[in-house]
Amino acid sequence: MQCLSEEIVIKLEGHVKINEYLSEDDLQSGAVHRVVLNKRNAIHNENASILIARGMADRPGGSIFTMHFGTGGATIDPLGTIVFATPNTVGAANLNNPVFFEVVDDLQGAPPGNSMAVRHIVGTLFSDVEIRCVLDKNVPFGQAAFDNVGALNVNTSPFVFDEIGLKTDDGLLITHVVFSPVEKSANRILEIVYTIRVRIA
User: Fold this and answer.
1) How many other CB atoms sit within 10 Å of the CB of residue 35?
2) What is the Cα–Cα distance from 104 to 123, expressed in whole angstroms?
3) Which of 16, 75, 74, 11 is nearest to 41 (CA)?
């Protein structure tokens, strides 16, 4: 008796976009002040395979839980050139220098504005997981604000980050992206839209 089997290839593709808004009304209406980042990201294939298997078995750690921000994604050499770190996608990976995170799973206590959704077009062989994280005004706590003429309060500093990663609730790093440093002041809102496309080939 012949046993028939079919192999499928699962590919994950990641993309991150950061939009800046001047007010809550602008965020709700989609009136983007500027696009801060628009870039593809790296996937930790081993950890992603664990995530998918856990999800299929309905086991703990089978979903994205948090979005992490760090300051170890880029450095400036003596000539002023930005040198980017290699995304961490093997072994017991983490951000290079994690400094802040937010829960993004809206079924498990995410702050308002943070959410996850699955999008699929019937007849296609891919589905998108869209993860949104909103860094509201004064988040993280203790940031500096720009005044009406665009000057920064010299006694404080903005929140600066140059790497982002997504993790499960038990700390598995699923994605990692590094980029030129982004400043987030207290009177600005940043919306991070992280999309992971799951494609069957």
Assistant:
1) 10
2) 29
3) 16
C-alpha 101/C-alpha 89 separation (Å) is 19
CA–CA dist 14, 19 (Å, integer)? 17
Type of residue at 36 = V
Radius of gyration of the chain (CA): 19
**Per the structure block, which two tokens stand in for 104?**
């993004």
Beta bridge partner(s), residue 115? 132
List the one residue out of 155, 164, 159, 163 whose CA is nearest residue 133: 164
Burial classification of residue 56, based on how many CB atoms lie within 10 Å of its CB (0-12 exposed, 13-18 middle, 19 or more buried): exposed
Nearest-5° Cα angle at 82, 80 to 85: 145
Q: Which two tokens stand for residue 146?
A: 């720009």
Supply the pTM of this predicted model: 0.88
104-156 per-position pLDDT tens digit? 999 998 999 999 999 999 999 999 999 999 999 888 865 545 554 555 555 56
